[in-house]
Amino acid sequence: MLTRLPWARRSLLALMIFLLLALPNTLWTSATAAAELCDGRDNDQDGTVDNSCPGRCADPRALSGEQTLADPAWSADLGRDRSLVWDGRGFAAVWVETQGYDTRVVFRRFDPSGSPLGQPLPLSDLVPIDANAAIAWSGSGYGVVWSAEDFGLPELFFAALDDSGQITAGPLKVSTPGEDAQRPSIAWDQDVWIVAWAWYNSRVHFRRLSADGALLGSEVCVTCDTASGAGDISLAPGGGQIGVAYSDSHGGVRFVRTDRQGQALGPPTDLTLQTGAGQPSLVFTGGHYGLAWYDRRDGDDGIFFNRLALDGSTLDTDRRLNGADAYAGTPSLAWTGQEFLVAWGGGNGPDYSILFARLDDQGQPLGSPLYIPAGTGPYSRPSLVWTGSRPTWIRDEDALASPRNILLRRLSCCLDADGDGTSFCDGDQDDGDADSGPDASELCDGRDNDYDGTVDEGCDTSCQAAPLTGEESVGEQQPTRPAVASRGAGAGDYVVRGDATRPGWQLVVDRGPPWQTSAVEEDTAESRDPAASWSGRRLLTVFEDLRSTSARLRLSEFDADGSATVADRDLTDGAAAGARAALGWGGRRTGLVFLNGSPRRAAWTLLAPGGARLLRDIPLGNEEQAAAPEAAISPAWGGGLALAWLSPTGSDQAVWIQLVDEEGGARSTAVEIGTAAPGRRALALSRSRQGYLLAWIETSAGGGEVIMAAAVDGDLALLAAPHPVTAEGGSPDGIAAAFTGSETGLVFRDARDGGRYRPFRLRLDAEGATLGPTTPLGSDRDVGPPAAAWTGSGLRVSWTLPAGTDRQTVRTAVVDCVAAGVASRVRRLRWKDKLTLNWDPVEAAVYDLISGDLARLVLD
Q1: Helices (H), 65-152
Q2: Residue 85 has pLDDT above 50, yes or no
Q3: What's the whole-model pTM score?
Q4: C-alpha to C-alpha distance for 398 and 566, rounded to whole angstroms
Q5: The pairing of beta strand 758-764 with beta strand 744-750
Q6: pLDDT for the residue numbered 49
Q7: Where are the beta strands (DSSP E) in 397-514?
Q8: What are the tens digits of pLDDT across the range 261-310?
Q9: Distances (CA, A) of 645 to 15, 210, 232, 535, 685
Q10: How many C-alpha atoms does 151 have within 13 Å on its Cβ side?
Q11: If you count DSSP H runs as helices and E runs as strands, how many of each does the chain have, helices first?
Q12: Are residues 54 and 610 in contact, defined by beta-carbon separation less than 8 angstroms?
C-alpha cells in the first residue's frame, strides 16, 4: 500500500499519474512478373490497370533539370527513335548514336532519380545505319528491337537483357533475310515478346519470341489483305488480344486487332483518311484503348486523341490537343490508371518545347498543356512513361547542339495532399500532415514542423522525468512482438496485436487510451509480426499472414478514427515464412523494409497512400550477398527515408546506412558503419538532432552480448564510432528506437544476472552517448521484445507477458517526458496490487520522479 503523502508530494504524484492518462486518445520473395505495380500497366494481366493506385498527376511541374544519358564522345542521331521504359526499380532507355559515318544502338539503366547505373551498353555493331530502336519490359527483363542496314536492306534485330542490364539472348535477326524491315515496335504479352514492323513500307509484319529470345512460330503478315501501306507502328496488348495502330501510305492512321498469334481479328479501322496523319501512340487501359497521333487535317501541325473500344470502334470524336503552334509532332502517350498523359515536341518561332497534357479517363483535357523549354532546334521527340508517381521522358537534344545528346526529364506531380496550401513541390517535406510545412507552428512531436533546422524548440522532450507512469493490458496475442505507432502532438497512439478472442489469431488495432479495437483482417487467418507507421493522416500496418500454404505479406490502412480505408491487401505473390517487416513515413510515401525468404536478404519498396506498391522489391546491399539478417527504416531529414541493414562479410556482419528520396532514388551512396563484427543482430534506427542513430546487438570481446550504438550526421558521416551502451553480463534482445525531438529512447528486453527477461529503457544523445542509467520499465515477469513510439509527450512502449502456452497478455506503458508545471486532471491508475487511486485536479510546479516500479514509487 502507498502511505499518505503531504499535499505537495500528492500533487507531484498526481501530475505523474495524469501524464499517463492524459495522453492522446484520439518479406517476401522477389516479386515476379505477375506482381501489380503502380505503373499504368496491367502487370498481372487480370484485366485491370492500377485500379488501386494513385493515378493522378495534379499540378505537374518540371522541377528538376534534364540529365544527359549518352557518351559525350558520340552524338545522338536525329530522326531516329529513342525509347524509355519504367521497370519498377528505375528506368531503361535505348537510342541510336553516331560517330563519324557509323552508328550503334545503346542501352542504359537509371535509378528512380534518373542517376545512371553503370555505363552505356552498345547492343549493335558499328554499321552505316542503325535506326528505330525500341524497348519493352516483361516484369523480369528487357526486350530491345531495332533495324540495321549494312549497305543493303534494313533488317530487324532483337536482344534480351535481364533486370540488371546483362544481355541474355541475341542480338538475333528477327525479320526474313533479304527483306526490308523498318520502324519496329515491341511489347510483352503475358509470356512472350511481340515484335511488329513495317515490311517495305507496305505491310505490318508480326513475330513472337519466348522470354529467353527464341523465335516462336513463323512471321505473320497482319495486313496483307488490305491495300494500305504501313509506317510507324504502336502495339498495346490486353484483353486477350493485341491492339496495333499504324500510319498508312495514304496519309492516315489505322487500327487493327490481332489474336495473340498475330492473326487479324477483322479488317482495319480507318481512324483518319488522307489527312497527313501518322506517328500513332497506343495504350491499353484495361477496358479500352487510348490513341494519340500527328495530323494535318487543319492545314497545320496537330496532335489529336481518341479512345477506341475493344473492337476498334471510336468512342469519342477526335480531339485536338495543341494550339496554333508552328511546329508539333511525335506524340507519346501513357496511361496512369486514371488519366492519359501525352507529351509531344512543338514550337513557335525560334524557341522549341516539349508540351505535356493530361486527359481524364474519358479523354477530356485537364487544364492547358504545360510548355517546357527544349532549346532552339526542332527535333525534340519525346518517349514518355509513367512511374506510378511522376511522368518521365527522354528526348533528342535540339538540332543545333553539337554533339547532340539524349536528355531525361522528370516531372513532379504537386498535389497538396494535406490541404494546407503548400505542396511537396513548394517545400512541404511532410505533405500528408497539415501541421507540417514551411509556415507551420512548431509542435512537441519529435519533428521539425516548420523546417527551420531545430526540432521541438520550446519543448522539454528530454525524457528525464518518469521512467514509467503505469502499465495497462490491451488484450492477448500470440507470443510475438506487437507494433506501436503514434502521430504525436495529440493525434493518437496505437498498438497492433493478435487478438486471442478471434479465430485464427486475427490482428487488431487498439486505439487509445481508452482502448478501442478495430480488426486488421477480413477473415480468420493466423497472422503475426505486425509493423505499423503513421503515413500522412492514416495508420498503415503490414503483417505476415499464414492463411495459405506459403506466408504472405498483407497490408491494412486506417483513418484516425479506426475505420479501415484499405483492408487486408495482399502485397506479395507468396512470401516465405519468418519474414519481418518495418515501416517508415518519408513525407509523401511510406517505406517498407523486409526480409526475403530464401535466400534470406533485406529488400525495400515504397508504398503510395493506400498501400499500393510503387516499386518492385529493391535489394539492400550487394545483390550477390545471401543472408542479410536484419533491416530498419526511419524518416530522413528533408524528406525521403533512411535505410539501414546488416550485410554479411564472411562470417561477420557489417552495418550499412543509405538515404533515398521520396521516389526511391538514391540521395546518398550506401555507407558502412565501422568494420564488420561477429554475432550482430536486432538492428534499430532513428533520427537524432544531428542526423541518425543506429543501434544493434553484437558479441563483445569478453564473449557476452552488448548493445552498440553509432551516430552519423545528415550526410552519413560518422559523429561517433560504434561503441557499447550497455555493460557486459546481460542478454539484451529485441531493441527498438524512437526519436523524441532531443534524444533517442532505446527500449529492449534483457535477462540480467540470469534472471527473467524484463523491459528496459536507455536514453541516448545525438552522438550515441548515454543520458543517465538504464531504467527498468516495470514488469518483473518474462516479457516479449518491446516496441516503442514517441507520442509527442512520452514514449509509448508495448510488450507481452506470458499468459498461457499459446497466448500472451499485451501490456502498454508510457515513459513520461512532459515539461513540468502542467495543469493536470487525474482519472484512475491501476497498480499491480489492484489498488485504484482517485485524485482531484491538481497543479504542480516541479517534479522529479527518478525511479520505481509499479508496486512502489520512490520520490526524490
Answers
A1: none
A2: yes
A3: 0.85
A4: 47
A5: antiparallel
A6: 80
A7: 406-410, 412-413, 471-477, 483-486, 493-498, 507-512
A8: 999 999 888 888 888 889 999 999 989 999 999 999 888 899 999 999 99
A9: 41, 37, 48, 22, 9
A10: 3
A11: 1, 63
A12: yes
Distances (CA, A) of 434 to 418, 423, 627, 665: 5, 10, 41, 25
Strand partners, 649: 652
Report the run of H or E that residue 857 belongs to, with start and end: strand 856-859
> How far apart are alpha carbons 528 and 580 in whole angstroms?
9
Please give the residue that has the higher pLDDT: either 305 or 199: 305
Q: What pLDDT is attached to residue 314?
A: 95
CA 419 – CA 415 distance, rounded (Å)? 9
pLDDT recorded at residue 575: 43
Closest CA to 644 of 580, 694, 601: 694
> First CA to last CA across the chain, in angstroms?
19
Contact 633, 659 (CB under 8 A): no
- Give the gyration radius of the chain's Cα atoms: 30
Phi-psi region of 834 (alpha: psi -120 to 50; beta: other; left: phi over 0): left
SS3 labels along 109-120: EECCCCCEEEEE
| 328 close to 336: Cβ distance less than 8 angstroms | no
Average pLDDT, the chain: 80
Cα angle, residue 49 at apex, residues 48 and 54 outer, rounded to 5°: 125
Residues pairing with 763 in the sheet = 745
- Joined grid coordinates for residue 470: 503505469
Q: Report the pLDDT value the prediction gives residue 208, as an integer from 0 to 100.
A: 95
Amino acid at 486: S
Q: What angle do CA 133, 139, 141 make, to 5 degrees?
A: 50
Integer CA distances (angstroms), 738 to 239, 566, 790, in order: 49, 26, 6
What is the spatial distance between Cα 156 and Cα 378, in angstroms, rounded to a whole number? 28
Comparing 580 with 774, which gets the higher pLDDT? 774
How do residues 724-770 score in pLDDT, each as one tens digit?
A: 999 888 889 899 999 988 889 999 999 876 778 888 999 999 999 99
Cβ contact 789:809 at 8 Å: no
What DSSP string runs through 552-611?
EEEEEEE-TTS-EEEEEEE--S-PPTT---EEEE-SSSEEEEEE-SSS--EEEEEE-TTS
CA distance 640 to 662: 4
Instruction: Yes or no: say if 635 and 591 are a contact pair by the CB < 8 Å rule.
Output: no
- Evaluate whether 423 touches 69 at the Cβ level (below 8 Å): no
The CA dihedral of 425, 426, 432, 436, to the nearest 10 degrees, is 150
- The tens digit of pLDDT for each residue in 88-145 reads 999 999 998 887 777 889 999 999 988 888 889 999 888 777 678 999 999 889 999 9
